[in-house]
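Follow-up to my earlier ticket, as requested here are the two runs.
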Amino acid sequence: MAEYDEDLGSITRNDEPWLVRTVSVGSGTRVAAFHDAVRDRDGRCVITKEVAFEADYGFWVGFEAAHIFPLAYERHWIDNVYSRWIAIPAASGGSINSVQNGILLRSDIHQLFDSYHIAIDPDDNYKIVCFRRNGKGIAGDHLDQRFLEDPLRPVDQLLRWHFRQAVLANMRGAGNRFLNATSLLVRM
């Protein structure tokens, strides 16, 4: 483990692994209630704020309910008792399918979120952090207050978990950074 100082503060490099994600869209009755709960709560992409205008007609093309903690790692979820963070039980499929483990995203943003290219930092006023070039114009934006005041919103612990995974996934190797918001490194 190597430590070094920059004008950003002390940063510790380590070999902590991250959970590699693949882009996937869950289906079946197990996650249908999850999708419905996230869609009902959000009604728009929480990152870009683009509204799903035809949602009233059941038309959600271009919008996807994303798990913050990936469904593919449910065994890891269970083994590490991440369910302790969930206050609102899922209608079906176990605690990993709670509305508190989901956000509605545009399909393209969902891919970036699942591949840890973007994340939400709950400890910096819910700032959206891009770990690649900011072609979407979202880096530095914040989640809106309406979303944050919703009692069904995702819990900070899961957003923090995802943000940490994104940092671990992107801050490897020779120290190459593609980060737009480097102030987050001080806390890591």
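Run two:
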Amino acid sequence: MPYSHHSHSGQFCAHASNSLEEVIEAAIARGMKVFALTEHMPREQQDLYPEEIDDEYSENILREIFAKYHIEARRLQKVYSSSMKILVGMEVDWIRPSSGFFIARLISDFHFDLFIGSVHHVHGIPIDYDADLYGKALSISGGSNKDLFGDYFDLQYEMLTALKPPIVGHFDLIRLKSNDPNTEFVKIDDVWEKIQRNLAFIVSYGGILELNSAALRKGLKEPYPNAEISKEFLALGGHFTMSDDSHGIDQVGSHYRELLQFADNIGITQITYLENGSPTADLRFPDITTRTTELSEVQDHPLFAPSLVT
């Protein structure tokens, strides 16, 4: 009974592939029990990605696309209700303090089942897009990974305290484009203290960390978050969910077998997931309940046979 609480489609995301319905059908074919649709929130004009600029997008166009996404997601949620539990949400991009205003308005204007709290920018620059943009953010921070890592986790803390997201997305995304993507944060004292602070705050309000398999898909040795962070969160009593962060049908459920082996190796025994029901964690989402299942039950799913998952 696999789950994914983080996904995108080419219909509503410029750097993804396939229609939203095709992504849902792929998730059903792979035996997903719960699958969350979480397209990116619209961003301000100054924060457009290079491919969005190439396609002559604007802030207004992104808002129009997002409104169409919400309508289509709710329609498909009903159409496929007998085949799979579908949640409709968004992935927020916390870029600067003013992001809070736009996010609050989106939550007010649209009815969501959840949202993913993520940081993709530091100093207003995307840090997971390519090495050149990462280098620009690195330079502004002072030129060292330690400085940029610290700025990233400070910005993440700002996002956490302002939004208290029900699910925190790719907690340590900052390592993806660094020159040491498999770095050991625990050896960087100042940075590790910020990580501990952020994890403790997530636990304090009942947030959930996603185990995100996209890091494995992109060639990293461990998923987001890495083992040292996951162990720290587990020791604090934190809860984990599963996400493939898919950007097309070929990525739905990708690297989940390795993700589950990772979870087993570090001592995670339960997986948390969201579904429709009476609220148990976040009263902002009155139709959503939080449940847990044993990791071993998820591992027994046919999806994770070695011949089916890479």
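The only thing I checked on run two: The first strand starts at residue 3 and ends at 4. Let me know what else you need.
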